[in-house]
Amino acid sequence: MTRFLLSRILYGLVVVWAVATITFFLMHLVPGGPFDTEKKFPPEILANIKAKYHLDQPLWRQYAFYMSDLSRLRFGPSFKYRNRRVEDILGQTFPVSMYLGFCALMIAIALGLSAGIISALEHNRAFDRLSILAATLGISLPGFVLATVLIYLCAHRLKILPPALLEDWRHYLLPAFSLAAAPAAYLARLSRSSLLETISRPFVSAARARGIYGARLVMRHLLKNSLSPVVTVLGPLTAMLITGSFVIEKIFSIPGMGRYFITAVTNRDYPLIMAVTIVYAVLIVVMNIIVDVAYALLDPRVRIR
Predict the structure, then answer these.
(1) Average pLDDT over residues 168-196
(2) Arch. (CATH architecture) of 90-259
């Protein structure tokens, strides 16, 4: 296990380095720059600004400067937010995005797995058909459309939930449900198909012949042998929910990473764009390692070598 984890961590570091390198050069290859605004700076001031951020150096030297700072976990100063470092912005915004993503993940798992299990047990019955319809709508409907509908119904018409900002737990409900709808629908379809495949296997018929039904059959026999496909998608899904809530955060005026990332892309804030991209890559790597370890815990036939 130790050798496996060390090798995966090493591969993960290579992946993060590759993502950082590709993102760095792609950003700098796009025409224009972070200080090319409608209001032109005097040449002397523009030269001083570029010298301050090493933008007057050759591209390979800028890359060397950035990698040197990144090796010390320093992302540099923000181009847009003056006198603020990127790590300070991440320290302020990442917990907000992480909490929102965690709430959305819990809702998606609870709704998705519950609907998938019941649909598989009620195969070709009314609940199964309604669940398939709801899952199809959840996957097809964009998150920003659902968010707009929820704001209109719950905040403006019924006035039971606040429409925006973050002040208490009630403010998390609408954005969390908006963010969790598509993952919940996907998990419901995935868990349903996996359970239906497991139900048709001989060991389930043998368990039923021994008088095992209901919750005992589901917990001891069905779920344990059906969760591998679900666990596979939970890794990237978790990273996506934590860092991929850009549009939802913008709609609900949530001060998370997504809101800053959109502004950073618009203003060509290279250090902030790089930082959010690297955080996303690290989360993907970490969650995939956790998924690989979870395989061995869920299925004793899987051996980590």
Answers:
(1) 88
(2) Orthogonal Bundle (1.10)
